[in-house]
């Protein structure tokens, strides 16, 4: 019986927390703000990376052929010849002529009614999808093939038009990653300050614990557990608000109906990575608190 009582007392001592209660000070709220911003930045970086990958996959091996000819009859004849030649090329998986009416309707907001009534010569367009692999070499061979038909034929890959946008999205993704790293450093600094403050405020209690035979590791475990609970509460609160905001933004993006904005999405791997951020934050806070308190206890001896 006495052995069982001792074991229960030892277990209770290991679970003991420093006085002050949970969410009693500013640290949980600071960690909640840090976690909120960290999750948002990480979600932005993951979503932008997914958008760049999706854009690259969609544009790889796609090109547009333009028939730049003022005379409509000549333009239509050259476009028909180019379409037949492309469909017979081994490098082309599919070639489709763009509907002139649809093209004119898309140009109407910028060119006015002239784009519809035919007064303004609009190039004929052919959408080309290449077979997989080595798109650059295939484009060069197809350009040579088209130049043999007519000098008015121009072929441009889709990636050339959106390459600057893809570069911008990639740069913003790296920026979001940098923000996540800075927020992790800031959170670590907050934990260090909180651990040092808790150590100074409980200096008398620490001296009593030392007189009772407690080791530095046992005392540091008390601080580690207290800061871990604060980090748990703050991380849960910040993560919940961040997920709410992300879901709200996702609904807004879906309402826009834009294919480009619709590509900014998170896969299940991205959501899993976001879910691991608060766990990593709690572990980081506990490790930093333990080392900070142990270092402070070592200096007091």
Task: Write structural notes for this entry.
- The model is unreliable at 9-15 (pLDDT under 50).
- The protein has a four-stranded antiparallel sheet with strand order 2-3-1-4.
- 74% of the residues lie in helices and 8% in strands.
- Helix 2 (27-59) crosses helix 9 (216-256) and helix 3 (72-87) crosses helix 6.
- The radius of gyration is 32 Å and the shape is rod-shaped.
- With 301 residues, the chain is of the alpha+beta class.
- It is built from eleven helices and four strands.
On the 0-100 scale, what is the average pLDDT?
78
Strand fraction band? 5-15%
Multimeric status of the protein: single chain
What is the CA-CA span between the terminal residues? 38 Å
Low-confidence blocks of residues: 9-15
Strands side by side in the biggest sheet: 2-3-1-4
- What is the general shape? rod-shaped
Number of helices: 11
Summarize the main sheet: 4 strands, antiparallel
Following the backbone from N to C, one meets helices and strands in this order, namely HHEHEHHEHEHHHHH
User: Which structural class should the secondary elements be placed in?
Assistant: alpha+beta
What radius of gyration results from the CA coordinates?
A: 32 Å
* Count of DSSP strands: 4
Helix content: over 70%
